[in-house]
Amino acid sequence: MEIKTDFLILGSGIAGLSLAIKAVDLGSVAIVTKKEKIESSTNYAQGGIAAVQAETDSFDSHIEDTLVCGAGLCKIDVVKFVVEEGPERIRELVDWGVQFTRTKDHPDRFDLGREGGHSARRILHAHDLTGREIERALSEMAGTKPNICIYENHFAIDLILKSRIPGQAITGSDRCLGAYVLDILRGEIHTFRARFVILATGGTGKVYLITTNPDIATGDGVAMAYRAGARIANMEFIQFHPTCLYHPEAKAFLISEAVRGEGAILKLKNGTPFMDKYHPMKSLAPRDVVAQAIDTELKKSGDEYVLLDISHRDRNFIIGRFPHIYARCLEFGLDITRQPIPVAPAAHYQCGGVAVDACGESSIPGVFACGEVACTGLHGANRLASNSLLEAVVFSHRMFLRMKERFPSVAEDLVPIPAWDPRGATESDESIVVSHNWDEIRSCMSNYVGIVRSDKRLERAARRVELINREIDEYYRNFLITRDLLELRNITTVAGLIVKCARLRKESRGLHFNINYPERDDERWLKDTVLIQPSHDRGNFSNPLAI
Ligand code: FAD
Ligand code: SIN
């Protein structure tokens, strides 16, 4: 089946929904999302969204904190406009129905939280369930627009480029015509044809064994864009969140940095605080510093976790400010108002991604990327806490303005798109291969491409990833595709990109620490690592259109 739309948005987190709500004023919108519409990293965001609000705060201070955290690699113009356009985008979220927590004394004022690397209170939040509140409000708002059609349980497989359609001679630049999409419940593959295609597919935490991310985070957007020939940048900068609940039954539950913002202290198992050895901001230092410090202490002691202690704060304050974290920890027998919380770092955020310009357009004309999938230049080598939700709303607005300007001149391309051709693929009799390779890739990345890296470990990882990549390519060619297989193919591609970027960068900066080059080297490495798939690799699949 071929489905036509003006805007094809892949993903229904904050990036996809906030764009859809605006783009629908220009034309029809199809949102393709691989699970239920609210299932996204957005839905799990705790701490909040950073934006200058207080009279005592300033744009300059937010800009400076972002630049310091980004360790020299942020694009200054991008940092400036994201910070300066932030308050306007917050007003819009509020107009769309997002209810941020207000102060008790002044209900017209937002209660502002603080997180690592921020020199002021500037985090708007909805208690400790900010993402759930944003996702609720945006989904409800999108639901009121009849011209937004949401396809749940639909998995975008690959972008369709005009140049890859047999018989199409391209003069000038290439064009993306849409995407092939698997209807997971029916097992059918549809063609979505669109004037604009937007990747809003989120991050890639599932590349690692322990991650704060939900299951959807398998790097699909980056993998699709790479296969289509887009520029991919800075994939070595994977952010590990320092404080994930350490408990055998808790599936990497995040303990928000806002807990440290309210005075929680990191301690060794014997109760000794240790962050004063690592940074003047102690437990509220930027994330790269805190995660590396915890990693160092754990290696020294042989322990599996450190402690995060907020029990010195008033019990009612803790329960009122962090109701979700309090309740979840209590389910595991842990009363955080009385006991310190065992925590360890977990993969959390991808700072690199599909390289885009100041309006979110990738190097493939007509293909845009927004949210965690994109590399905008805001985060540099390490993202400042709560700048991710902010980046998504600022860029979706800028992207909308670019599309609005271009919309009248971008006609629908009538080139016939061949339907997906399975080319004799059969049902797999060995699906166990998929789960084995899935485990192997995640163990390999966790063991060799984690917080602390070395040339030797990266080389080992490169060899293993390459081998698995070849196996999966063959599997992909011969067997009917399933969601699991597509995700495995994508995490393997993305693992390869992370390793490649990490091997290119011969220094340590921000989130990339290599013991063979422990120093930051501004003379040689004050630049992005950029990857583009060599064109001769591109036809390496059974279906020539599957890229
Ligand atoms: P997501 O919200 O992840 O949405 C991605 C969407 O794409 C999903 O709908 C998914 O189903 C869909 N999708 C993916 N692949 C496909 C495919 N192949 N086909 C179809 N659909 C697809 N950031 C902050 O700024 N502040 C915070 O407090 C904060 N807390 C966080 C807490 C947790 C536990 C986590 C995991 C992250 C947190 N972050 C926070 C980061 C932030 O939540 C994310 O970076 C942000 O929400 C990403 O939004 P997004 O719209 O780009 O992607
Ligand atoms: C948190 O609440 O600690 C997460 C904030 C973020 O990732 O920006």
Spell out the blueprint of helices and strands.
Blueprint: E1 2-10, H1 14-23, E2 29-32, E3 49-50, H2 59-69, H3 76-95, E4 112-113, E5 123-124, H4 130-143, E6 148-151, E7 154-161, E8 176-183, E9 188-199, H5 220-227, E10 232-233, E11 238-245, H6 257-261, E12 265-267, H7 287-301, E13 306-309, H8 315-321, H9 323-331, E14 341-350, E15 353-355, E16 367-369, E17 374-375, H10 387-406, H11 432-448, E18 452-453, H12 455-478, H13 483-504, E19 513-514, H14 522-525, E20 530-531
Parallel strand pairs: 1-2, 1-9, 2-6, 9-16, 15-17, 18-19
Antiparallel strand pairs: 3-5, 4-5, 7-8, 8-9, 10-15, 10-20, 11-14, 12-13, 13-14
The structure holds flavin-adenine dinucleotide and succinic acid.
Residues 10-16, 32-35, 39-42, 44-49, 130-131, 155-156, 200-203, 212-213, 216, 220, 254, 349, 371-373, 386-389, 392 line the site of flavin-adenine dinucleotide (FAD).
